[in-house]
Each structure stands twice: as C-alpha cells, then as structure tokens.
Amino acid sequence: MADRYQGPRRARLATAGARAAVESVFGEQPRGDRISGMVFRALMLLALATALVMLTSLIIYSAWRGWGRLDLDMITEKPSRIRPEQAGYGPALVGSIYMIVGVIVLVVPVGVGAAVYLEEYAKKDRWYNRLIELNIQNLAGVPSIVFGILGLAFIARGPIGLGLVVATGSITLALLVLPTVIIAAREAIRAVPSSIREGSLALGATQWQTISRQVLPAAAPGILTGVILAVARAMGEAAPLLLVGAAGFTPFLPVLFDGQYSALPVQIYRNAVEPREEFQTLAFAGVILMLAVLLAMNSFAVWLRNRYERRW
Amino acid sequence: MTTNSPDAPAGGRTSVEAALKPASGAQRAARETVFELRNVSVFYGRQKAVNDVSMDIYRNTITALIGPSGCGKSTLLRSLNRMNDLIPGARVEGKVLYQGADVYSPQVNPVQVRKKIGMVFQRPNPFPKSIYDNVAFGPRTVGMKGDMDEIVERALRGAALWDDVKDRLKDNAYGMSGGQQQRLCIARAIATEPDVILMDEPCSALDPVSTGRIEDLMLQLKERFTIVVVTHNMQQAARVSDMTAFLMVQVGADEHSRWGELVEYDETNKIFTNPSDERTDNYISGRIG
C-alpha cells in the first residue's frame, strides 16, 4: 500500500518545479539582456530630456525677451499701434476668456451627448453609425483654417449671420474642438467596465439612470481631461479667428453679440509683426501671459478632477 | 397545477403588472412555482446556445444549475430576468413564465422584470462609490419609500456584512476584500426587496472561507427569497441547493455548432445519489466534463 501513496513524491516534484521557476526569475541575467535594457532606458530618457529642454528653453527665452514688459499694464492696458511701451493685452485677454467659457458651454453638452449616443445607444452594425464615427475621426484632423472659413460662411454671414463678434469666434472654436472632445469622451465612457452597467441594470435601473448615475460619474475625470486639452487647443488657435474677425488693435472690451473683439494669440501675432523693438518685447510678454492662463486653467481642471475622484 | 396566480392569466398589461407584484402571504403554499420554463431556447444570432429547456422553479428554494463549461447555464440564468436583452442578437424562444406572466411578452418592460428578479454576478462588481451609496443606489433608482439609512442597514444585515462595515459606510467599496465585495453585491441586490435572486457563479472568484460565508448566507436568504444559482462547483450545489438541474453540451451533426441541453432536473439529493440519467451519473462522479 505504501508505495502507491504518491503524496511526498508529488510534493517534492512541486517544490522542485517552484524552485526552478523562482530561479529563472531572480537568477543572474544574461549579459546581453542587461546591456540592451540599459540602452533602451537611456534612449527613453533622451526622448524625455529632449521634450523638457525644448519646453524650458521656450519659456526661458520668452521670459528673457519679454522681461521688460512683464508688468501689470501688460495685462490691463489696451493695445496701441503708436505707443507700444504702454500698450497691453486687456481686450485680448478678456476676449480669450469669453471664448474659453463659450467653448466649454457649447462643447461639453454637445460633445458628451454625442459620445453617449455613439457609445451607449448607437447600434454598431448600422452603416450610418459607422459613417458618423468615421467622419468624426476625420473632422478631428481637418486644418483649423478650414473651420475658420466655415465660421465665416455660416456663422458670421450666411444662415446664422451673427457678424464678426466674439460669439462667432466662440462657436467657430467650439466646432473646431468638438470632434476631439467627442473622441476623448467616448474613450472615457468606453473605459467604464460593462460590469458596472450590468450591475446597475440588474437592480432595475433604466438605461438612462444607468448612464446618468453610474457611467457618466465614473467617466467624468476622463471626460474632463479631454475637455481641458481641447479648450487649451482652442485658446491657442489664431488661424480660424483671423477669418472670423478677431481684430488686431481693438481698444474696446468685447460684447458677446456686438462689436469688435480680439484674442491673445491674434494680438501676439499682430504685435510680433510690427517692426519696432518695443512690440517684439510685448509679443514675448504675451506668450508668457498666455502660458500662465493655460497653466491656471489646467491646474483648476486637475483640482476639479481630484475633488471628483475623492468623492468615491 | 403550476400556475399560482389564477387571477393573472398570461398576457395583457394589467395581468403582468399584477403578477409582478409580490405574492401575498396566503399564496405562499408549499412548493409554489415561481418560474415555469416551457421549451426555452436561447440564440446568439444564428447560433443556438440553449435548446428546449422546460423546468419549474419553486419559491423559497435554492435551485442550482450545474454542467460543464459552455453548456449554457449562465445563458439560461440570464434569460430569466432578460439580461440577455443587453447582448446584441440574443433571442429567446419558448415561454418563460414568472408567476404565470410571460417575461418576454411585448407589454412587459424589462426594467420592471429586473426590479423583481435581482442578480449577483460572477465577479464582484461594486459601483465606484461608497459602501452606503452602493446599497442605496437600487432603492433610490426604483424610488423606494422610507428612511434610506434603515433600508441600507437592513440590507447590509441581511447580507451578514453590517458588523464588518458599519464604521466605514462612507469608504469606497473598492477598498473591501473580494468576499466582502461579493456580499456587498448581495446586499445591493436584496436592498430593493426583489422576489428572486439569480446568482451567476457567485463564488468562482473567491477563496474557500469567503465561499463558505456566501453559502451560509444563501441558506439564510432562501427563507425570504427564491434563489437560482449557476455553479461550476458540484460540492457547492450539493451543499446548498434543494433542486439541481444538470445541463450538457450537445454537438451538432456538422461538428461546429454546439448548444446546451437540460439532461436532468430533480431534487438535489436524488441527482447526487441516484440520478436517472447515465450522463448525470458520469458527470457528478467525475468521469466526464
């Protein structure tokens, strides 16, 4: 009987197997593996360093060239063609803030709504849904100047005819970044595991309750990140705004549906192309101002996201 | 005599709504039938997953569905509360009668069905919210009246989880152990006071100790609910269930199509000690599957 009992032998076999597995993991690595690992690591580090060096040199150079005008007047004063040493970015800054708010107000409901439709409601096997998807992805790659022409033809003039006002600029920029927001929001919604949806539906929640109370809150941080990146891009765009009437040297603060307006990137461009040295300095100071606004916006988004996540 | 709601013939909105209401105490006779499955087949697209299952499921019992992988036991379970509706192309033929009312009748709203027939899944799937909000979600969405704190406490006590979590109700549910998460999912399911709880391999992701606790819990819960459980684990079926259904994979003549069929359905004792079908005997004694 004793020789038929396999227990100890099996145990020995299992221990030997486990030991071999552990040794293969923790044992001496072959020399070739070590060197190629180090080379790979160095290359990654180099890539990171390149990106960081470019960014810091841009900031340092702009700060150095614009140093003379990094003052309060630069933020509050009106632009001037005649006296650049006293001119500033007041109307342009307000115009940009108007447009940021406008873009967020327009892009969040429409973008998230479209993403919810595509992810939660659309039947993937229908040709029209696939066509919509394909078009959204292509739209995200359309050059911004094309959106400028669209804004000029359909929003400033044409059927909507708002004129060359700050609302036109807002709508144009919102259309420009809408595809990006839809794509980001879809990714965030898709990342919510389907077990969450099933769990909610199995409790007798309707599809809309499941989306609004489970899926969207869980996807919110991802959606927020997408919106912030999109808005940052919108804020930096000059090309489409040149077509929908962002003026270079407007001394007035913008009114939503009336009168001239300006925007930071457009104003920076106008200053930069003026021949006098003082304009150049002001242009570099404007770059720093724009980066500061972007940084403030991103920090606010990170804070908002952390707050949201802590509530779980 | 399987129908227990003589005032609720199948079909028609009012009768369905009436049948979906909880049964009154007087109706709770011994071996009252909750589900009648009549020639139920489930398809995914053109592929048949479950073929021609007929069985009755009784109130306040634990019914186990056992069988090898791919025999359609989960599919069959999910057809009871219309969770298969969520899978594109899924289709059910035959009749699934819940207290005499056809669950798949066009007048029936699947949301109403799921309010009465809760479900616990294979992997614990708590919501990314606090423990309290996990339990309160169901009662809030179905609009239950009463003090929410009380409802939550009752559900957590029902799932034998209250003492573990009463001091950290506001903590994220993801911080709990796997076994606790699964008990939270059970608490969540019973919070809305359903009639039936479907469990799809509720212990397959858990360690033996947690499994034991869930099994104890199931035995307690059957006093109040009807439980249908899919399990891979035959010992589990033998330990907890009153009735056992054994399903098997059938391979089509073309060797490509395979579907599940009900081989035998009887009292658990009989299935495990004296099965009528040779295939059941082979499966439970470990010769196949």
Q: What does the radius of gyration of chain B come to?
A: 19 Å
The CATH topology assignment of the largest domain in chain A is: MetI-like fold
- Summing up helix and strand content along with how strands pair, one would put the structural category of chain B as alpha/beta
CATH topology of chain B: Rossmann fold
The biggest beta sheet of chain B is recorded as: 10 strands, mixed
The residue-averaged pLDDT of chain B reads 86
Terminal Cα separation of chain A, in Å? 60 Å
Series of H and E elements of chain A: HHHHHHHHHHHH
Radius of gyration of chain A: 28 Å
Shape of chain A: extended
Percent helix of chain A, as a range, is: over 70%
What is the highest CATH level, the class of the largest domain in chain A? Mainly Alpha
CATH architecture tag of the largest domain in chain A: Orthogonal Bundle
Tally of individual helices of chain A: 12
The CATH superfamily name of chain B is P-loop containing nucleotide triphosphate hydrolases
Unreliable stretches of chain B: 1-29
Strand elements of chain A, count: 0
Number of strand segments of chain B: 10
Oligomer state equals heterodimer
What's the number of helices of chain B?
11
Family (chain A): Belongs to the binding-protein-dependent transport system permease family. CysTW subfamily.
Organism (chain A): Thermocrispum agreste
Function (chain A): Part of the binding-protein-dependent transport system for phosphate; probably responsible for the translocation of the substrate across the membrane.
Transmembrane segments (chain A): 39-64, 97-118, 139-156, 162-185, 238-257, 282-304
